[in-house]
Design a protein that fits this description.
The complex is a heterodimer of chains A (about 180) and B (about 210). By secondary structure, chain A is mainly alpha-helical. Chain A is built from 9 helices and no strands. The chains are: A mainly alpha (about 180), B mainly alpha (about 210).
C-alpha cells in the first residue's frame, strides 16, 4: 500500500510539472484501480456504469488536478474524488429508479395481490417506528442496498446504520408481540 | 469513447500546473466579485457623505474590522472547502468568535444606555434597508464564489455553498459599511450579521445543485 502511494504520488508530481509520459502511466494505473473500486461498489444492475464512472473520475482528476496538494497523500485525494463520483451516481440513479422501465411488461405477469397485502402490512408496521430507522430498514431490507451503500449515501457510519436498523426491527418485533397479545385477549 | 481514447486525449492536453493555481483562481474570482459589488454600491447607494469625519470615529472602525475580519475568514473558507475532503470547521469557529466579540461590545453599549433608548438604537434610521442592501450587494460576490468553486473540487456541496455565501455576505457587508452611517454596535451586531447569514443560507441551499461537478 505504501509503495503504491509513493509511486503514484511521484507520477502525479511529475504530471503536475507537465511530464506527459508520467501522466499516461499514472492514468493507466489509476484507471485500473478505479474500475475495481467501482465494480465492487455497484449493484449488479449498474455494473455497466463502471466504465462511465472511471472516465468521469479521470476527467475530474484532469480538470481539478490543481486541487492536489503535494504535501498530502495522492491516494486519499483520488479516493475522495472517486467517492464523490460514486455518491453522485447513486443520487442520480435513485431518481431514475423511481420509474423502472423494464417493469412495465412484467406488470401483469403474475398475481401480486398477496404480495401487495404483505407490502401494505409491512408499510403499516414501518410507519409505527421513527422515520430514520424506517428509511434505513426500507433501503436495506426492501430495496436490497448494502449497509455500506446506505452508509455512504446518508453520510452515517456503517455501525450507526446497523444500530439504527437493529433498533427499528426490535421496535417492530415489540409491536408485533403487543398486537398478538391484543389478539389473544 | 473508450477509456484508452480518453487517456490519450487527456495526456495530449496536459499542461504544467502552478502550485498557486487555486489561490490565483480565488483571487481573480473574488477580486472581480468585489469590484462588481463596490461599483454597484457606489452607483446605487453612494459613499457616505461624511466619509472624512467618519474615519476618525470608533463605530466606523468597529464595523470595518468586524466585516473585513469575517470577509477574510470567509474567503479563506472558500479556499479550504475547494479541495476534495476540505472542511471549514475552523472558519465557522473563528466567525462565531468574532460575532461573540461583537455581541459583547453591543451588550456593553446597551448597558451604558438607558433602556428607553434601546428601541431607537436597534432601529437606527436604516433598519428597513440595511440587511436587504447587504444581501443585494452580495449577489455578484456569491456568483463569483460559485464560479471559483465550480472549477475546483469541493466534495461537500452544501458546506461549500455555505462558505461561498458567508464569504459573499461578509465582503458585501464590508462594502456596505462605506455607505452606511449607522453607529450603534447593537445595530451592527444584529442587522449586519443577518445580512451575512442570509447569503450563507442561500449559498448552502443552492450549492447542492449549482456546485455539482
Amino acid at each position: 500500500m505504501h509503495s503504491v502511494e509513493a509511486r503514484l504520488k511521484e507520477l502525479m508530481l511529475a504530471s503536475l510539472a507537465g511530464d506527459a509520459r508520467s501522466y499516461r502511466v499514472l492514468l493507466d494505473d489509476v484507471a485500473k484501480h478505479l474500475r475495481g473500486y467501482f465494480l465492487r461498489r455497484l449493484a449488479d444492475a449498474y455494473r455497466g456504469d463502471a466504465d462511465d464512472l472511471v472516465q468521469e473520475t479521470l476527467m475530474a482528476l484532469h480538470t481539478r488536478r490543481q486541487t492536489y496538494e503535494p504535501d498530502r497523500p495522492f491516494t486519499a485525494w483520488l479516493h475522495a474524488i472517486a467517492r464523490y463520483k460514486l455518491i453522485d451516481h447513486f443520487r442520480r440513479n435513485r431518481i431514475r429508479a423511481t420509474v423502472p422501465l423494464d417493469d412495465a411488461e412484467d406488470l401483469f405477469a403474475q398475481d401480486n395481490s398477496n404480495a401487495a397485502a404483505d407490502r401494505m402490512d409491512i408499510d403499516r408496521l414501518l410507519h409505527t417506528i421513527p422515520e430514520k430507522s424506517r428509511d434505513l430498514i426500507y433501503r436495506t431490507k426492501i430495496e436490497g442496498q448494502s449497509i455500506a451503500e446506505v452508509a455512504q449515501s446518508t453520510g452515517l457510519s456503517e455501525s450507526s446504520v446497523k444500530v439504527s436498523i437493529h433498533r427499528g426491527i426490535k421496535a417492530i418485533a415489540a409491536k408485533l408481540r403487543g398486537q398478538s397479545a391484543d389478539d389473544d385477549k | 469513447m473508450t477509456t484508452n481514447d480518453l487517456i490519450d486525449r487527456l495526456t495530449g492536453e496536459l499542461k504544467p500546473v502552478s502550485r498557486a493555481a487555486v489561490a490565483k483562481r480565488i483571487g481573480i474570482g473574488m477580486g472581480v466579485g468585489f469590484v462588481a459589488s463596490a461599483v454597484l454600491m457606489m452607483s446605487w447607494l453612494g459613499m457616505r457623505p461624511d466619509m472624512m469625519d467618519a474615519t476618525g470615529t470608533m463605530p466606523f472602525w468597529g464595523k470595518f474590522v468586524y466585516t473585513l475580519g469575517l470577509g477574510v475568514i470567509g474567503v479563506w473558507a472558500v479556499k479550504r472547502i475547494a479541495y476534495p475532503l476540505g472542511n471549514i470547521r475552523i472558519n465557522i469557529a473563528l466567525m462565531a468568535i468574532l460575532f461573540l466579540v461583537m455581541a459583547m461590545l453591543a451588550m456593553r453599549q446597551l448597558m451604558m444606555t438607558p433602556p428607553s433608548e434601546y428601541y431607537a438604537m436597534m432601529k437606527g434610521h436604516t433598519i428597513a434597508v440595511c440587511t436587504f442592501n447587504i444581501v443585494i450587494l452580495s449577489v455578484p460576490l456569491l456568483g463569483a464564489a460559485f464560479w471559483v468553486l465550480r472549477g475546483l473540487g469541493p466534495t461537500r456541496l452544501t458546506l461549500a455553498g455555505a462558505a461561498a455565501g458567508l464569504a459573499a455576505g461578509s465582503v458585501a457587508s464590508w462594502v456596505y459599511s462605506f455607505h452606511c452611517d449607522e453607529s450603534a454596535m447593537p445595530f451592527i451586531a444584529v442587522w449586519y450579521t443577518l445580512g451575512i447569514i442570509i447569503p450563507g443560507l442561500i449559498g448552502a441551499i443552492a450549492g447542492r445543485s449549482v456546485l455539482r461537478w
